[in-house]
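Below: protein 1.
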Amino acid sequence: MAQALQRTGPGSPWQNGYVESLNGKLRDECLNEELFYSRGEAQVLVDWWREVYNKERPHMSLGYRTPAEAAETNITVDQRTG
């Protein structure tokens, strides 16, 4: 099933609050804390941050599970019911 690309309007962050929230966390916790000398250096740090965010850091909205744990639970539930 193909997904259609949908863009939000300029200056309209409320149209995609989840992504805007993630972008803000990435900026506040990662990008604003470092001075990068190359794009490659920035990419290494962003990749590290994303791994920690998804696999190590519990999220209150997911019942204090990591996104990886929540995804695994959802896959297991879907396999049992589907």
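Below: protein 2.
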Amino acid sequence: MQAVSNATDQAGQSTSPTTSAPQASPDVMFEVIRQTCEVFESPDISQKVFALASKAYGDYVLNAPRLSQLPFLITVNINIAMAKNATRMGFKREILCLEDSISPFNYSGPSQLPASFPQSLEPTSIQQNVIHHPWLDVFPFPKFRDNVIYAVAANLMDDDDLCADISEINYDNAERPCLIVWGESWDPNGWEASVLFLPRAIYRTGATLYLTARDVKKAKTALDGLTDTSRVHFLQLDLSSLESVRACVQSFKSQSTQLNILIENAGVMACPEGRTKDGFETQFGTNHLGHFLLFYLLKDTLLNSPTPEFNSRVVVLSSCAHQAGSVHFDNLTLEGEYEPWKSYGQSKTANIWMAREIEAKFGERGLHAWAVHPGSIATELQRHVPAELKERWAKDKEGGKAWKNMEQGAATTVLAAVSPELEGKGGLYLEDTQVAKPPARGITGVADWAYDDDGPSRLWAKSLELLKLA
């Protein structure tokens, strides 16, 4: 499998020191830690984890927690959460550690679950019918469980590697892909993925990744830890330059004849009025025409790459801002009436229409497309947004619900790229890992014109004309 994605900017977060020590007796807490470490079947591992966890707790008691201990504690916590969920499901914890274990759900068949059984852990039909290891049953995300079980059964993913990423104790405190559990082990809202986990999860499917960026050196630095492999390549791309788009495609085609997934992600937002290197209005030229040309030049490769199990896919990043306006065919440059958000809304509607027309033209040939709203994410995309507007957003309680961290923002894109549930069901606008539903509600929903009957085909013809492809 081959995948091409436009790279995005990344941001870091800092952790503040603890300001007050816990009230429980240290002796009591050390005993709790000792009992907790019993989830590890090996006495050697249990003792080693106990020693390190006790040291971390001792530093915490002294109001001197060490940030360097966090990666270790995260992996201890995920093991505890997995063991707790196994116990809740009635599994013997030791079966999680045996290489040849088979999930009890595979041989127990349909059964009446106790009323106290968490809904998030209830077995799906796939868990009951596809042979798999029981460690894949412990995650409180039914779709995640199904997707991984499918991928492992089809030899698209090695669950041993995934298990090592998630549960191998991080004694070295090195940064690596991980899952983080903040709350109850059975509660999906208490789990979070690290920045590296989702791209690594796609990498674990065996895909070869081609990542594009205007500055390849910066992109490699941002994705350090994922790039030390022959299956991750970088391509230079500036979507505001048609020459750069063509050079990028030529570079890709010189390296590969296969492309299964194209994720069109990069862009600009609400910038001052301007023109691209080829004379197009900046936002329409970058966010739509650049992506359109990239797809068009890769179209034949995508059409030649489907398999019976997995058709080719295009994921186009749109936005809830498409609600700011439709495409102005009579004045695409908005000359004399330019307004940053009006222009951005036009380009995001164009993204939806492009995905819909790809589906209409090529869906029956095994090439499908989706438009995706990732959510509001604090990245460099917002560099042109005035400070006062950002402050207003921060105080808006309703709008605040739309904000996502980068892991959450990637979820809908990853769903569109690889989910078996969407196989053959393109031409849709997705948000919050599901199909968006009307009406338009500002931060959620979909505008009426997004599903206009004539807009997609009309935009397609106009794009071919502007790019001299007709």
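The beta strands are 2-6, 179-181, 191-193, 208-213, 232-236, 261-264, 312-317, 367-373, 428-431, 434-435.
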